Amino acid sequence: MTKPGFRLALFATLLALLVILLGAYTRLTHAGLGCPDWPGCYGFINVPKTDVQLVYAQVRFPDSPVEEHKGRNEMVHRYFAGGLALAIMMLGVHAWHRRQIAGQPVRLPLILLGVVFAQAAFGMWTVTLKLWPQVVTAHLLGGVLTLNLLFLLTLRLSGRFEALPQLPARMRRLAAIGLALVVVQIALGGWVSSNYAAMACTDLPTCHGQWWPNTDFANGFHLTQHIGPNYLGGQLDSDARTAIHLTHRIGALLVTFSLLGLAWQLNREGLKGVAALLVLALGVQIALGLSNVIFHLPLGIAVAHNAGAAALMLTLTLINYRVRAVHAVAPKRAPSLWHYAHAMLHLGPHR
Fold first, then answer.
1. Is the dihedral of CA 158, 164, 169, 170 positive or negative?
2. In this predicted model, what pLDDT tens digit does every residue of 218-239 receive, in sequence order?
3. Which of 52, 47, 54, 21 has its CA nearest to residue 33?
4. Which among 76, 213, 233, 238 is least surrounded, fewest beta carbons within 10 Å?
5. Are 114 and 28 in contact (CB under 8 A)?
6. Model pLDDT for residues 294-329, shown as the tens digit of each residue
7. What is the pLDDT of residues 75-98, one digit of tens each?
8. What's the CA gap between 77 and 79, in Å, rounded?
9. Are 308 and 288 in contact (CB under 8 A)?
């Protein structure tokens, strides 16, 4: 039976997924600096359109000419992100008012509130630091964390998945490792995107016609890049971007083998439904990743690749939730001699 707040949590989860996809669309259309200020756009609540507004924008931001379509993409993303923040605040207030009720999650909604405030700061720094890759990647991971926590809250409020037979302990470890690898792979994907390395290799399965082309890992993963340059379009040379791209490919292989092993174990334990769901999510994501390279990063497939990553992560969150729910149920133990003695003493006077 669902608990109060379930529908709001489900709505916020779907909204968080939409915000992530809008963020991906904004990055892929090179609209991350469509508005050079924050939270407004050239000092307005929307993209300037009238002659007076355009003159004001030109005077105030002479180095950032107004591009309406880019500004619109950025502001739509911000509006939906603001709506998500309000939904999470409502969840926090609802949880706090019901904190005395047994089974009401309180800590999770409050953690979500903290994550939302951090996300607002990263959203501002993304603009003010001119798409500094470290901030852009951290902002993406914050969005992924928000989505994951909201999905977990939705699962807890759904009242489902309460009873399963005891599973081997290795299942919990495999599920946790799989989720961790997917999160790391998403972080690598964010690093690829923020450094504009998606098309550093345009052939498969080789890169530049070689199994191991020239690479520059030192600069590709130089996490102390200078703050100040405009990182729109990227600042790295070809070898550094190739190193980032290859690392993402290697990560994809590790994720694939790990999740196939997990799916096999799930199937052996009789959880065929979630095993099939995991294989489906993995297969779709692999196909989308290959399509990005083969078809040279078409916008629709690139956005769908972000959705596929989110779907794969949520599938693993569901699996971890079920496995941990199993381990949370203590196995029944055989009665001890003390229990038998206690029962005999208790029953004695009533004979």
1. negative
2. 999 998 888 889 999 999 999 9
3. 47
4. 233
5. no
6. 999 999 999 999 999 999 999 999 999 888 765 444
7. 999 999 999 999 999 999 999 998
8. 6
9. yes
> Is there a contact between 17 and 306 (Cβ–Cβ < 8 Å)?
no
Cα distance between residue 319 and residue 283, in whole Å: 17
The pLDDT score that the predictor gives to residue 164 is 56
Tokens coding 231: 């990182």
User: Euclidean distance between the first and final Cα of the chain, in Å?
Assistant: 43
Q: What are phi and psi of 337, to 5 degrees?
A: -60, -35
- Taking only Cα atoms into account, the Rg of the chain, rounded to an integer number of angstroms, comes to 25
CA distances from 273 to 181, 277, 280, 316 (A): 22, 6, 11, 13
Amino acid at 330: A
- Contact between 56 and 48 under an 8 Å Cβ cutoff? The reply is yes
CA–CA dist 256, 258 (Å, integer): 6
Of the ranges 18-27, 137-146, 159-168, which one carries the lowest mean pLDDT score?
Answer: 159-168
CA pair distance 71, 79, nearest whole angstrom? 12
Residue 162 pLDDT > 80? no
C-alpha pair distances (Å), 51 with each of 44, 78, 109, 201, 292: 14, 24, 45, 44, 40
Residue 283 carries which DSSP code?
H
At 322 the pLDDT is 85
Sole residue written with tokens 């989505």: 147
Q: Which two tokens stand for residue 69?
A: 């379509």
68 in catalytic set: no
Task: Encode 297-326: b = buried (16+ Cβ within 10 Å), e = exposed.
Answer: eeeebbbbbbbbbbbbbbbbbbbbbbbebb
Cα separation, 244 vs 197, whole angstroms: 7
